[in-house]
Amino acid sequence: MISSNNINIASRSVLSSPGAIRSELPLSLDAVIKVMEARQEICDILDGKSKKFMMIVGPCSIHDPEAAIEYAERLKALSEEVKDRILIVMRVYFEKPRTTVGWKGLIYDPDLNKSYNIEKGIFIARKLMLRIVDLGLPVATEMLDPIIAQYIADAVAWSAIGARTTEAQTHRQLGSGLSMPVGFKNATDGTFQTAIDAISTARSEHSFIGVLEDGHVGVFRTRGNPYAHIVLRGGSGQPNYGAEHIAFLKVAMRKAGIKPAIVVDCSHANSNKNYKNQHIALEDVLRQIADGEDALTGVMLESNLLPGSQKIQAGCRPDPGISITDSCIGWDETAELIRRTHEALGKIHGENSGE
Ligand SMILES: O=C[C@H](O)[C@H](O)COP(=O)(O)O
Ligand SMILES: C=C(OP(=O)(O)O)C(=O)O
């Protein structure tokens, strides 16, 4: 029969519902408590109630679950060492927003070969998140597809809305209903206003359409997320974490009625997409804090077991510990930067005597 529908649809198939996958891979009571406690710690940092500094650290994207576990075990051990001054949250990113086209992350294409076994991707992703939460490490992720959020959000302590989606009403609405703090990246051109508008929007109540636990379509009414905040990632080839940017941003945020609580992404345009520059952003942030800047609440580092990045090549298994998206610092540099940050914070708080 002739139809005006599905002209550009190649195929459709049923996916297990969020409720079905969550009941197959449930969060234990202990894990629920860990997630809730980590979220509260992050809220306290953003509120300025806790003096701890948040470091969101981990791969640009995860493509090998076993390498991710090895990374998480190392990060957990290090987080124990620095936990008096630093809250470490692991980047566990399964969805990649692309500038044009490219691999979109483990959930979309877990076999890295354009077979797009999304059901398998969701299972692997959720299982991995639960293992990392069980290790005692809080998890951060980007919420890109609003439906995918329903499959994993219960395990997440901190979420991001990316630079390419911060302007979208869909993502601001999603942020308004998320149960954890949500960081909105500034726009890809490096300006702040889109993210400030996103924060105001996400802190408000919304009504919108989404997918329910059982897979049916439903109407969601949200309360607004009081912990929507900004993440600076630079843009147009320029960093935007300098003291002059922070001063300008704070004025703009106060004008919008938002108490400034800022996270600096040391990667992306803040590193000119070169992992070797991430330490420069981190050092600048620590200098500003030493000079008395109290709106800088945390940083993000893109880090993997090994430094750099690699391209996906058809028929070849990529190295498990090297990024297949943006370049990352390797483990050795990661550990060094975290320990240096711990030491710098000790000096700032006057706590280093006897170390
Ligand atoms: O964080 C990852 C990338 O910067 C983002 O996904 C965009 O990547 P692309 O410009 O390579 O598509
Ligand atoms: C895609 C990312 O960042 P941005 O949205 O800032 O480009 C990311 O952090 O993985």
UniProtKB/TrEMBL annotation:
Keyword Hydrolase: no
Record EC number: 2.5.1.54
GO molecular function terms attached to this record: 3-deoxy-7-phosphoheptulonate synthase activity; identical protein binding
Gene Ontology BP term (one): aromatic amino acid family biosynthetic process
SUPFAM superfamilies to which the protein is assigned, alphabetical: Aldolase
Keywords per UniProt: Amino-acid biosynthesis, Aromatic amino acid biosynthesis, Transferase
Family per similarity comment: Belongs to the class-I DAHP synthase family.
Protein name per Swiss-Prot or TrEMBL: Phospho-2-dehydro-3-deoxyheptonate aldolase
Species in which this protein is naturally found: Victivallis vadensis
